[in-house]
Amino acid sequence: MKELSVNHLLGIKYLVKEDIDLIFETADHFKEVINRPIKKVPSLRDITIANIFFENSTRTKLSFELAQKRLSADVISFSAAQSSVKKGETLIDTVNNILSMKVDMVVMRHANPGAAYFLSQNVNASIVNAGDGAHEHPTQALLDSFSIREKLGEVAGKKIVIVGDILHSRVALSNIYALQMQGAEVKVCGPKTLIPKYIESLGVTIEPNLRKALEWCDVANMLRVQNERMDVNYFPSTREYAQQYGVDKALLDSLNKEIIIMHPGPINRGVEITSDVADSQQSVILDQVENGVAIRMAVIYLLASKIKQ
Amino acid sequence: MSQKILLTSKEVTIILNRLACQLIEKHLDFSNTVLIGLQPRGKYLAQRIQQILETEYQIKNISLGFLDITFFRDDFRRGDKPLEANKTQIDFLVENKKVVFIDDVLYTGRSINAALTAIQSFGRPIEVELLTLIDRRFSRHLPIQPDYRGRQVDAINGEKVKVCWQEKEGEDAVYLIKE
Q1: With an 8 Å Cβ cutoff, is B87 touching chain A?
Q2: Domain ranges of chain A
Q3: Most CB atoms closer than 10 Å: which of A59, A178, A238, B138?
Q4: In chain B, where the domains are located
Q5: Does domain A12-137+290-304 have CATH number 3.40.50.1370?
Q6: CB-CB: which of B72, B81, B93 is closest to A37?
Q7: Model confidence pLDDT, tens digit, residues B77-88
Q8: Which chain A residues have a beta carbon less than 8 Å from that of B121?
Q9: Does pTM surpass 0.80?
Q10: In the CATH scheme, what architecture does the domain B10-158 have?
Q11: What is the pLDDT of residue A58?
């Protein structure tokens, strides 16, 4: 019988390849479950989960909530805007208050890198990182790899290019870890100002030219330009960014092969990708969203099975 | 550890044929009946029964599905080992159908209890029956009894009944194993 090597999902960095395989196998079963007429299983009926979002989120929060409800867990959700955090409460106090209401698992998004790790060291509950600053977003990377596996059969040996704002992206870092762990080759592509200085120490290569990057890859993961995290101007204008690093249908059609287009959402239509690319046959953006629920069900199920009664 | 043979290959064949005949007696042409093998071990028995119905009695187009009950079990987080799921493969609805659950051994009845909940995800069956090769008498935790049974066995709790299949273990046989 297999189980995860970790008690929390803090980042892909803390996982081993076997964990990813187990999560994918379990997600396969849950994907079948969520395509049934009745999409719910009772496994987690005695588990309570708190979703704590100190940063805005639509997709991830909904996806986590849906995953938890499809597993029959009891769910409480809150976002920082409505909470006592605004009144000056510390992170540990906030979470401990929630835990004293007998919560077994915490899913947290926070603007500070390492917030989930910090929490796991200080409170007695299973922690799932739903994004910590520009550090990691493990479930997104898992669902991205799961979507690649679904589309191309396996991740090993595939060539993936991550395009755009790598500097501010937790999705990029988690994806790099996850893809490399599974034996894929990773390139990053974007304006020099949005590529971290030491990115090559992670074993990825930089390709400044978008066309060359697309011609090389099997899958292009287009990241959103995170204007909200930019304190200075990293490129002259959105128009210029779109011209150099945006993918349109003409560019896609001019390539010598058919590549897969991914995007973690939310899309800035006309910036990273144009509408006709986002809605094209080559785009798996909506499959990613569906797979997100299955992956999060698998992660929560596997972590919950390690919570002792 | 010692083991005693409960059913030989020949006995298994005779019993499977009898069970198939009992099913025909009740369901005739199986036009409104579906067979559901319970994963993981009921799958082999279900496939055998379907095969006998098709080859020996020329009943074609029998709906056969496999149901995994892992996520519906009542012992999640209660055992030492994590529960491992298997594939559910039911490509039809059971709405208004007669469902026959097929499993190799009926022991506490908890798997069947979970299966009764799990099958509801695929519609509301008009009737559910249970077919098992081995019925371990006196060990039930729930008021569940088979409608079709191969052989009734009296085994105490420390003992294990192991059903072997040609396609999996290389022989058809049933053993009683004492730890």
Answers
A1: yes
A2: 12-137+290-304, 138-288
A3: A178
A4: 10-158
A5: yes
A6: B93
A7: 887 777 788 889
A8: 33, 36-41
A9: yes
A10: 3-Layer(aba) Sandwich (3.40)
A11: 84
Among B71, B80, B89, the residue to mutate for chain A (most A Cβ within 10 A)? B71
Report the distance separating Cα A273 and Cα A210, nearest Å.
12
User: 3-state class of B150 per DSSP?
Assistant: strand
Interface contacts A/B by beta carbons within 8 Å: 60
User: CATH assignment of A138-288, given 3.90.1600.10, 3.40.50.1370, 3.40.50.1010, 3.40.50.300?
Assistant: 3.40.50.1370
Neighbour-count burial of A233, counting CB atoms closer than 10 A to its CB (0-12 exposed, 13-18 middle, 19+ buried):
exposed
- Sequence-distant (6+) residues with CB within 8 A of B24 are B53, B57, B59
Contacts of A42 in chain B (CB under 8 A): 71-72, 117
ipTM for the whole complex: 0.81
Which candidate from A1, A305, A308 shows the least CB-CB separation from B76? A305
Chain segment B111-137, per-residue pLDDT in tens: 999 999 999 999 999 999 999 999 998
- Of A199, A168, A198, A170, nearest in space to A186 by CA: A199
Residues A302, B82: C-beta atoms closer than 8 Å: yes
Chain centre distance of CA A16? 17
